[in-house]
Amino acid sequence: MSKNASPIAVPKYLREKIAQGEHQQLDFKYAINDARKIAITLCAFANTDGGTLLIGVKDNGSIAGAKLQEETYMIESAAKMYCQPPIDFHTQGWKAGDRYVLEVIIEPSIFKPHCAEDVDGKWIAYLRSGDQNFPAPAVMMHYWRLEDTQRGEHYQHTEKEQRIFEMLQNEHGVTASDCARKLNIPRQEVTRLLAKFLRWELIDMHFEQGIARYKALTHSG
Questions:
Q1: 3-state secondary structure 10-29
Q2: CATH class given for the domain over 138-216
Q3: pLDDT tens, residue by residue, 67-112
Q4: 31 C-beta neighbours (distance < 10 Å), count
């Protein structure tokens, strides 16, 4: 900024939003130049807790400005062409001095999973954790199917489930591969049981270095 330049007048709402920094429900984008890439973030928000994109904002929170019409068109293309099923969103343009910021709001979806198409034409579901997007693990794909087809099922404790659940008492959590290998249980069956544990809210899932880990929330009984 030159010595004679005036500070940009930023609306209070936008200023407070930017001050939060990027997190699980907020992402900054300098500009949108690839509809496929932004589709990943749209899907991740929709599949997790919803979220807001601020377009025209740099990673450090400074306002670079957005071209509202062009950016809106790119978001529409991403949401309709590169997300399956398509994702609903709404937008709000904010004026900050002589610049604009496009706010894109995505609600958590009831039609999970939403998948984004990659350059090879493969459709991949994503989740949002912290300020990053990750491909949804097989456990979550199974979990979403359970939500659709087995809502009335009650938890039935078995010896095999007890073995897996005891392993999940690890304070750092374990991966599905760890469970399958150490307990000598087929990976597909471990995936199915972990999905049930998630659905019954017995365990939690988090990402470490892009890998999903599962941890018990309560003791089986």
A1: CCHHHHHHHHCCCECCEEEE
A2: mainly alpha
A3: 999 999 999 999 999 999 999 999 999 999 899 999 999 999 999 9
A4: 15
What are the pLDDT digits (tens) for 160-184? 888 998 999 987 899 999 999 999 9
Token look-up 């709404």 returns: 90
List, for residues 8-23, the tens digit of each pLDDT value.
678 899 999 999 999 9
pTM of the complete model: 0.87
17 contacts: CB under 8 Å, gap ≥ 6: 26, 52, 54, 103
3-state secondary structure of 162: helix
d(CA 100, CA 63): 8
DSSP state of 63: B
**213 and 174 Cβ atoms separated by less than 8 Å:** yes
Count of Cβ atoms closer than 10 Å to residue 104 Cβ: 25
26, amino acid identity: L
Domain 12-131's class?
A: alpha beta
